[in-house]
Specification:
Blueprint lengths: L4 E4 L16 E3 L4 E4 L6 E4 L11 E4 L5 E5 L4 E3 L29 E5 L6 E8 L2 E5 L2 E5 L1 E9 L8 E2 L6 E15 L5 E7 L2 E10 L2 E2 L3 E9 L13 E5 L5 E6 L2 E8 L4 E8 L8 E3 L5 E7 L5 E7 L5 H5 L3 E6 L6 E5 L5 E5 L2 E5 L10 E2 L41 E3 L6 E5 L8 E7 L4 E7 L5 E5 L8 E8 L3 E7 L1
């Protein structure tokens, strides 16, 4: 990747440190890379010229160095070049008139829980209306995955032949996202076509589990209204803790509970929304859900719903206008960022919602000019990444024996963490340390008779956010700690 800064975005930066550097580079479209590691964020030139009209994927390492991007059709390395074996990742796509899979959420990536240099790259081809041999019709989605191995191609990353385009699911819509599970696990969530069934796959240290289906909410059926170009787009968006999802389909928006231990979707709540509302995001703390509603004459309005109540009617009636945009462009995407803000796109404009868990209208930063003038008029819209923004859910304390919560300190730590165990664990205990991507970095046995422990942390562990978990017969304890 070239590091020359083309332009600085006039956005405010609200956080002093990133929790997830793995999500610090966002591929926008056609040679534009949003770098959230800089303060303020910048747009860097990026050689790749892949173009997509929905969500893509951009993956960096835990230091914020870009590793690869994909729009679903190919794998592109940090230098903007398609990898030697990175072509034709959407080979199940049958629409000869389009160069990409044309799904709204065609791709996402999940790091192997036990092998940090390897990533599952999930590609969902089709899943919307298009031209086939039979004419213009709905083409059900086909889900495949490949394994990106960063040790290949001299460390630039590639896909081995035997780990490319492995079939995982069929007859799906164009909605797909990764959802946080318990530490070390992630769920891949999709929706079945001509059905109200969600399908989830658990990704853990043992690999990709068997599909788990649950029926809830609207049925996604074969209906097309002439002139309603976004009528058939649909997308899934997950809360940071993995406990809620939102699902868009055919001008409908529904909120669900998600059991991120068992993969079950339930309890639909229909939220009021306007036609062509197809994108949204939960706030960083999960208290609010934001949507963008396009209107006529290039007017787009941003709304939020208050999710702090469990009452469906209260949530439905909480819809509040946050901002109105009079910019060119129509299709608007939203995504929360690791710096605590929410970013949205309207055409070539990129806007920021600051402090989205306690936002006021003046906290929305609307740029006066497009981020960059594109050299190709076909790149009429910026993408945002389909990413996992909170990849490790804290495990709740299960105190089955007595009131006891171990203290883990110092916070932040430098080269060790200590555990205060004066009250003692019952039976065998174990300490686990995960990075922000949910990757297990360290495990250490704990002896119940010791008053305290000091566990050395290697010097090469980078600064940032970590998660710990202590398992014992006393209970399961977890929390956050930083270096």
């Amino acid at each position: 990747m070239k590091t020359q800064i083309i332009v600085i975005i006039l956005l405010f930066y609200t956080c002093s440190a990133f929790a997830w550097q793995e999500n610090s580079n966002w591929y926008l479209n056609a040679q534009h890379l949003l770098n959230l590691s800089n303060n303020p964020p910048t747009v860097d030139f990026y050689d790749s010229y892949s173009i997509n009209q929905g969500y893509n994927v951009s993956v960096s390492d835990n230091l914020g160095n870009l590793l690869f991007t994909s729009s679903g059709d190919s794998l592109t390395n940090a230098n903007g070049l398609i990898t030697p074996n990175g072509n034709n990742l959407d080979n199940a796509f049958i629409n000869e008139f389009s160069p990409t899979s044309f799904s709204f959420q065609p791709v996402t990536a999940v790091q192997f829980p036990t092998e940090p240099h390897r990533y599952y790259l999930f590609v969902l081809a089709n899943g919307m209306y298009g031209f086939s041999d039979s004419g213009f019709e709905y083409i059900p989605g086909i889900l495949q995955y490949s394994v990106v191995d960063m040790s290949l191609d001299a460390g630039k990353g590639d896909i081995a032949d035997e780990e490319k385009n492995i079939l995982l699911g069929e007859n799906l819509t164009g909605a797909m996202t990764a959802v946080s599970g318990e530490c070390g696990t992630v769920w891949l969530l999709t929706h079945v076509y001509d059905s109200n069934q969600f399908t989830a796959w658990k990704i853990s240290e043992t690999g990709i589990g068997n599909p788990i289906g649950s029926n809830a909410g609207l049925s996604v059926s074969n209906v097309y209204s002439a002139g309603e170009q976004y009528d058939n787009l649909n997308g899934i968006f997950a809360s940071p803790d993995g406990k809620k999802i939102a699902f868009f389909f055919r001008n409908e928006l529904q909120l669900f509970d998600f059991d991120n231990l068992n993969g079950i979707v339930s309890n639909p709540v229909t939220l009021p929304s306007a036609p062509e509302t197809i994108s949204g995001t939960f706030s960083p703390q999960g208290d609010y859900f934001y949507t963008s509603e396009p209107e006529s004459n290039n007017i787009t309005k941003i709304y939020r719903f208050d999710l702090t109540s469990t009452d469906a009617a209260v949530i439905q009636n909480s819809k509040t206008l946050i901002a109105t945009f009079g910019k060119d462009g129509h299709l608007s995407l939203l995504q929360r960022a690791p710096n605590g803000s929410i970013y949205g796109t309207i055409g070539r404009y990129l806007y920021e919602i600051k402090n989205p868990d306690a936002v006021e209208p003046e906290d929305v930063v609307i740029p006066e000019e497009p981020v960059l003038e594109d050299t190709d008029e076909t790149a009429f819209i910026y993408n945002l990444p389909n990413l996992l923004t909170n990849p490790c859910t804290e495990v709740s304390v299960t105190d089955t024996k007595r009131k006891f919560v171990p203290k883990v300190f110092p916070n932040p730590f430098v080269n060790y963490v200590a555990i205060d165990n004066k009250e003692g664990f019952l039976g065998e205990a174990h300490f686990f340390l995960f990075n922000a991507a949910g990757k297990l970095l360290l495990s250490h046995p704990l002896l119940s008779e010791a008053d305290n422990y000091q566990i050395d942390i290697p010097d090469y562990f980078p600064s940032g956010l970590y998660f710990y978990k202590i398992e014992s017969q006393t209970g399961v304890f977890s929390g956050k700690i930083s270096k």
